[in-house]
Amino acid sequence: MMSLISIAGLSVRFATRSECVRAVDTVDLEIARGDHLALIGESGCGKTVLGMAVMGLLPENALIRGTIRYRERDLLQAEDAEMQRIRGKEIAMIMQNTASSLNPVIPVGIQVSEPILLHRILPAKAVQAEAIRLLGAMGFDLPERAACRYPHEFSGGMQERILVAIALACRPDIVIADEPTSGLDAEVKSQILHLIKKQMADRTLLLITHDLGTARFLCTRVAVMYAGEIVEEGPAHDLLSLPLHPYTQGLLASLPSAGLHPIPGMSPSPSHLPDGCRFCSRCPSATARCSTEHPRMSVRGARRVRCFHYA
Amino acid sequence: MSRKMILRVSVAVLCVYFVIAICAPLFTPFGPAEISGKPLQPPGNDHLLGTNDLGQDIFCQLVYGARITLLFGFCSALLSVLISTTVGIVIGYYGGFVDEFVSRCIDILVPIPMFPLLIVLTAFFSPGVLQISLLMGVLGSIHGIRIIRSQVLSLAQTSFVEGARAIGASDFHIMSRHILPNVMPVVMVKFVSQSQHLLVMGVGLSFIGLWDTTTVDWGTMIQNSYSSGGMALGLWWWLLPPGIAVIGISLALAMIGYSFEEKFNPRVGVNRI
Amino acid sequence: MPGDYITNYLLSLTNHLPKEAVDQFYHQFGLDLPLTEQYVLYLSNIMQGEWGYSYAYSVPVFSLIMEKLSWSLILLLPATVLGILIGTVLGAWSGWKSGGKKDLAVFNLMIVIRAIPEFWWAIMAVVVFAFYLKWFPLGGYTSIDILYTGLSIPDVLYHAVLPVSLMTFFIATGNYYVMRNSMISVIGEEYITTARAKGLDERGILWNHALKNALLPMITITTFQFAAIIMGNVFIETVFSWPGVGLLTTEALRLRDLPLLEGIFLLDTLFSITAMLAADVLCSLIDPRIRMGEDV
User: Fold this and answer.
1) How many structural domains compose chain A?
2) What is the reported pTM?
3) Residue of B nearest to A62 (CA)
């Protein structure tokens, strides 16, 4: 399958006055057309930074290396105007924080129609109707009424639907969803997940989440990130039923259904990363080699693992 | 010049002002109101900054005037901050009726413009510099109360306050040991900015004659030289020194205030690396 | 206000107080009525525009203030409007580019301007521009020629240039600071990132998203600024001998003219309260969150 997005050697570092934070370290990732890939990891592992890098939304003090190839262009080298053309139209993002990601003083309908107008998808007269149609498709009962309302008038779940509508407005090829169900209660979460699954049926999805259940529901492939690196990758079903990397094993063991066994210790600070394997200090099967040498990716059929045990 | 450098210089300048004000008698040959020479003399050996129209030494006036101006500014700022911190912490912590009541009072007092009120009260009672500075301290504390209160409110909800209660700490203990240190950054910023604001206002008030015009402070000095046509006769040494003195301390305080604000509130930050 | 009004007033007229005169005044002004009735009388007088008599000028306070007010307005209206515009625009630009060299430069400049007291700027301006360079007159609102030619508008405007410029200068710094802070905090908000993710260019983000939100706090501020116009600018008017409410205040203070000062204070307070109410109303009209009764 042809890769839609090819990420090669991506490193993102943030230079602050006192230290250098390595948020993403030499990541290689292929996303094929039609893939639903979940990027799993705990907070601070760099998954959101990765998503932002694809969108070109990293702050100015980010030092980025590597390439992100999309349709024969390197997104990291693209000019601002070009990125603006791509964002929203070809690659769209569903933001993490529902309430604060919507402009409080602009009615919802206008916020949804904004990308459509911007990228000139439809003539101006038809935009309003399209926005209302979108809101209806997202599950709003009276979309014409909803379009005139302001974000704070809606509940968290409804706001999330608005964010989904905004992302899908221009019918992008790729959607990056950053923790789409954070802060929502169980029933609403389930509704949103079903909505996303339905809408992503013939699109490419990059899901950023820490929730294994969500990943299992929505995605066909999973990549696990730890301390800025990808430590395991493969088809969702395989990986989640038979994890190879000790970290993934630990993650699965820490689920409530598996007995809530936490992984001991804490993940390393991105500004003081250890030599050798980054998971070494918490790994039950660590060897002497693990603390001195840094493991590279090994291939096991359709899976990739970054661990000496599979080298 | 980096931020740190500016801060250090400003603090140094401030210290110099203080030292000069406190040790005034040590290096002034004449008293501030003493007629010690011929009028309108340019700076010379006897009189470092020359003399004014009455023959008083300007340098000595400047130095002694520093005492009053600085005293005014810092006293009123100190009082203002003390009141607003205490009241703010108490009503923010206890909430309920006390909070409601005091907040309503503040709401009523806020629109009352401080400046005219000050002028009316002064015209009526004719108080001295110290009383006026206390008065300004009280008036100036009104806005601060709201700010401190909102800080305290957000703190009082946090769990460490509940934790302190759970171990049996008394209200006073919580307020002084837990809440106070946390609002200190805001308080300090407020103190510095109030000092600058009230000090400059004090000079301005004395310039328009709010208190006894025979007292020697920078405001009256400026007033005297301006209205007596100091510039018209080209007597820069009469007009400029007090003005420059005010600017100096005002700038120093402003710089310190902004450095603090930057440190405690990174959003306002100007210097990014 | 506390104090015996009549005694003060009469004392300012003569040194000797015959008892019958005092009694007569008491009765005429209703000072022999109980305190609450006096207060009611006071309020009704205020409503009718009877604000007492000035000691020094011997004219009714109300008309005196009104007369001077129009002169103050000549200075203050243009200065306030210009100052708000310039300050807001500069502040928005500075906030948008915050952290950059230009922003830093302007910001520090504004701090310095603000640190120097207003009256000092005024004095320096008079000294430099009027005295040495002779570009502008030394003060007053008109030249001596009116004795011959009558009041001429261009002449008044000419005299107004320096004070208005200075006031604009100073007012702008306040607006600059608030607007800049407002803009900086808006930029940090997440809906700006959403707008970027939609593919909006910087200009679009600035105009459609950032400005609307950043201007909200300015409404309150500017309302108060307009209210403060009433006070006149004491310092500028004193330095430039401009016959407005500010100068009136200084004079009244010098002469300890209580009724006049009280009148000015009353006017200021009334306007201040009106401004607060107006600001509340305006805010609720513009910010949809407040309109709906949300907790902002």
Assistant:
1) 1
2) 0.79
3) B273
